[in-house]
Amino acid sequence: MKCPFCGDPNTQVTDTRENDDGDVVRRRRRCPQCDKRFTTYERIDLKMPHIVKRNGNRSEYERGKLLASMQLALRKRPVTTEALEAAIDRIETRLRAVGETEIPSAQLGDLVMRELKKLDKVAYIRFASVYRNFADVDDFSSFVREVQPQSRPRRQETEPRSPSGQSEHDLFDD
Question: Is the pTM of this model over 0.70?
Answer without folding.
Answer: no
